[in-house]
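Box 3.1. Reading complex inputs
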Amino acid sequence: MLAEEVTLPLPEIRVTAPQPKRAPIEVDEHLVTSAQDGDRAAFSKLYESFAPMVHGILLARVPRDQVDDLMQDVFLTAMTRLRSLRDPRSFGSWIATVARNRATDFHRAPHGAALPDHLPSPRPIETEAWFVMEAIRNLPEAYRETLVLRLVEGMSGPEISERTGLTEGSVRVNLHRGMTMLREALSRRNP
Amino acid sequence: MSDYLWDKSGTPDPEVERLETLLEQFRYRPGSVRGPRPRFPWRVLAAAAALIVAVTVWQVFRMRSQAWTVSLVESGGGARSVRLGAGQTLVTAMGETAHMSMPRVGRLDVDPETTLRVVRSRSNEQRFELLRGTIHAHIGAPPRVFVVNTPSATATDLGCTYTLHVDPSGDGMLRVTSGLIEFDWNARRALVPTGAVAMTRAGAGPGTPFFEDAAPEFRRALATWDITGDDTLLRTVLASARPRDAVTLLNLVQTVRAAERGLVLARLAQLAPPPAGVDTNAILAGHFESLQPWWNQLGLRHHPAVRLF
């Protein structure tokens, strides 16, 4: 008896763009030590390596048009205070704290900038993107930072853990709960 | 939680993928933000640029302040003011005079038909070139700051007032009213004190300084000896010298041949006995710095602190 031919459904295979490899943490330790000794090139590499994380942390907390300036402030602060960092392995969590503190300072300071009289009409994709960003910004702090690093900056959970110093468990929880809350927020807009 | 949300492995979550695509526009892009490293050098560069600008402005201001103020008096009586800086030349016409001044340096009165070029005009060096004509200098600058080149000698001010003339052939004459002038050309050097005169000839350099009230035979013999070096004329000079002419002999000690140096020194000692500290053996050996106390003793109104040698 011939066996009945069975066509098994093939799993759908999607090709995604390869994610850029970030420098391993061992390299960062060496760079931090060199940067503490005044090596500008080493600090420049640290900047390249941690800029996305700092950008994400700030983007989760301050208006987008302020992020670039505050990024510079964060790295300038880091550069001037780097010698005070005792454990080079904790550079990521240290600069993440610097970034969070800078965002907090930003909100404490008075901002009297007035809106321009005429605002350009946003493109549709920007409208939805801005809505999603606002939805993320309204999430609890721990969730929005992790979600921005994952969805905007394209970092994986392990990378977020490695860079920010958060445990993988915390990042997993933040991603899971944050994504659930974001879905709920988005579904309320588009039921 | 799907693996895709955690580490981007496994089957992508369509909703997560959509959000990634949607939010990618907010992602950090290298170069979109100026890092602190380029920003910091810009500050340093800006500071350096500001410093350069400040120094340049200061230099321009300083150069301008180092320009001489010139008042030109024309033959008709009219006057006009100009400024004369390094590289510029003043030419006075027949019947035209000029009065130049610079604070902390002094004043120059320029006779008609004079060509005077400013070679350098700095706080530590005011160097002119007198190509022809006559200038009357009244200098208050520190010694060796004010210098005038002529075709046959260079006059270096050691604190004085003097007249310097150059004729079209390049010969010249220096007359010192007060103070002391160092007049030199190649290896020939003369010290011209108050009241003394020195001639200078193109191709030969400065002659031996003398006082214009010296005996006629002294002056004639000296002028000829300056050209020929005839030792007979030297003996005439020594024989007709007065005590006041010791200044001429102090110069001669340095210009005569070594074999004649003792002769001049002996006559000099008769006219103006050497002060304590003068080492005549050193002078005979050509160490002329030992003449400094002798110059100081003659009281020629130069400042004793000025090093003559």
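In summary: The mean pLDDT of chain B is 86.
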